[in-house]
Every structure is written in structure tokens, then in C-alpha cells.
């Protein structure tokens, strides 16, 4: 029996995006970063797309997005 036959809706798990990762990092860093979290997330997606990163790739994204110049 599938969801259509039972009339129930299956809850879909939220897939983590690069924006989610950047927002979480902004909150973790504290200071002024949490207020800039959405702006940083948009910038990261413009530069690197939506797919989440990990390891050295994520470190590179963070180093570029959270530059303090």
C-alpha cells in the first residue's frame, strides 16, 4: 500500500544546503556574523551553488564567505 492509497502524506526530510551550512557557521562564530547569516548564505550560493560541501571544500567556502576585510 502506498501513501496515495492510504491518504497519508509522507514527511520529507529537509536536505541540508550550502546555505544551511553557512547560516549555521555564522551562528557558531557569533559576534556580528549571526546578523549577517542570510546575506552570507546568499553570497555562498551565488558563488558555489546549492549543494552542501564538506572537508576542504567547506573550509574554502567558509574562508571566502567569512573574510573580514
UniProtKB/TrEMBL annotation:
Lineage: Bacteria, Pseudomonadati, Pseudomonadota, Betaproteobacteria, Burkholderiales
Organism: Paraburkholderia caballeronis
Name of the protein described by the UniProt record: Uncharacterized protein
Superkingdom of origin organism: Bacteria
Amino acid at each position: 500500500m502506498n501513501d496515495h492509497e492510504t491518504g497519508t502524506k509522507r514527511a520529507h526530510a529537509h536536505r541540508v544546503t550550502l546555505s544551511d551550512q553557512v547560516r549555521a557557521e555564522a551562528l557558531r562564530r557569533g559576534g556580528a556574523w549571526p546578523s549577517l547569516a542570510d546575506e552570507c548564505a546568499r553570497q555562498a550560493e551565488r558563488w558555489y551553488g546549492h549543494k552542501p560541501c564538506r572537508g576542504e571544500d567547506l573550509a574554502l567556502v567558509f574562508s571566502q564567505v567569512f573574510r573580514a576585510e
